[in-house]
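STRUCTURE:
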């Protein structure tokens, strides 16, 4: 069952009580930011653009800022913890492994966004404050969401530096690929405990004025062995989309159960990265060592009968193991990486949209069976 918001972006913007400009950054706490930055530069084709560390006054942490089009990752590790923030980062990596600590959202007015969120029940992490340097001023504030994840609200309208005050421009670690592998963050998926999905969807409805965009329950997301439920919340313009997953009772352990066990609680499961040429993206990333989930050849035998024609021939889709889904608005092409660290937690999706604003409902069974095969190899099904 699904329901799609029918508002146009302009109408939604005018009526939005919590206007956003888009995703500002996905911020990771990692054990070794220098090595992680090299991995995302080499394997994902991202470009290092800014840095903060001991060389420019940050004695406690090192942070590397990587970009691809509008997509921005910030990778932070602790050098020597000396404040509550450093101890939090150190403890987070110890408890959860490498993972996302912040889904930062760019807003036109961080003070107004924070005030609205707190007034409607959000837990404050940081009251609005300014950071300045020779490039201007950024206003920041932060609220808590599921697990130890936060949303930093970023107003950078008065700033033209490489990222934030305290960061300096940095040269790329490797030569970026000739063609960009992706352009933007399409959506970010959170996994929460059994019975908590509706609670967190209501949080986004109330605290940030987001509306329900899609809903997947029951047989939508179920195989013979495992099941989950998912709802998608989005801002009025659909620039920021957050699917929220919870496990469902089934014969065996679902991918959400596995994530919650190995991550040690709720958190960000995967980020979908938007590309306008998924074939080129997958070829480039495979050549750089990225491993994607496998899909049986049988998936492609009848693909044309229900998915129709796409811009990519079926044989190319079969070769690269790219999935297709079609709805009333168009179609999408998608593929999922295997987890990008040793714990079976965080992974990525590459997605190319042609009209469809869906999330691959028609692929759920094939996708989750592929994940189950990987779970079985790890002994976690």
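SEQUENCE:
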């Amino acid at each position: 069952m699904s329901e799609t918001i029918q508002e146009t972006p302009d109408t939604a913007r005018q009526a939005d009580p919590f206007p956003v400009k888009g995703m500002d950054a996905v911020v990771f706490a990692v054990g070794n930011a220098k090595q992680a930055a090299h991995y995302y530069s080499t394997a994902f084709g991202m470009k290092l653009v800014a840095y903060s560390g001991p060389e420019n006054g940050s004695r406690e942490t090192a942070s590397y800022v990587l970009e691809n089009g509008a997509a921005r990752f910030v990778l932070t590790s602790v050098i020597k913890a000396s404040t509550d923030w450093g101890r939090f980062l150190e403890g987070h990596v110890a408890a959860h492994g490498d993972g996302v600590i912040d889904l930062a959202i760019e807003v036109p007015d961080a003070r107004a966004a924070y005030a609205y969120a707190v007034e409607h029940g959000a837990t404050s992490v940081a009251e609005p404050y300014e950071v300045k340097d020779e490039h201007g001023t950024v206003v920041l504030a932060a609220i808590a969401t599921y697990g130890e994840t936060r949303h930093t609200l970023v107003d950078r309208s008065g700033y033209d530096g490489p990222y934030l005050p305290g960061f300096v421009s940095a040269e790329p670690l490797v030569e970026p690929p000739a063609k960009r592998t992706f352009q933007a963050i399409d959506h970010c998926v959170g996994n929460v405990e059994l019975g908590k999905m509706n609670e967190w969807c209501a949080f986004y409805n109330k605290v940030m004025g987001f509306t329900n965009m899609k809903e997947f329950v029951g047989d939508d997301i179920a195989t013979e062995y495992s099941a989950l439920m998912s709802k998608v919340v989005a801002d009025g313009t659909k620039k920021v989309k957050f699917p929220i997953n919870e496990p469902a009772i089934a014969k065996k352990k679902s991918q959400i159960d596995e994530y919650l066990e190995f991550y040690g609680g709720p958190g960000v499961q995967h980020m979908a990265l938007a590309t306008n040429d998924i074939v080129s993206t997958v070829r480039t990333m495979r050549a750089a060592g990225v491993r994607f989930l496998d899909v049986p050849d049988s998936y492609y035998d009848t693909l044309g009968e229900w998915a129709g024609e796409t811009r990519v021939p079926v044989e190319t889709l079969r070769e690269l193991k790219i999935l297709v889904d079609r709805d009333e608005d168009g179609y999408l092409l998608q593929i999922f990486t295997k987890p990008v660290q040793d714990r079976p937690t965080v992974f990525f999706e590459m997605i190319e949209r042609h009209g469809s604003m869906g999330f691959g409902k028609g692929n759920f069974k094939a996708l989750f069976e592929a994940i189950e095969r990987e779970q079985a190899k790890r002994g976690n099904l």
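REMARK: The longest strand covers residues 124-133.
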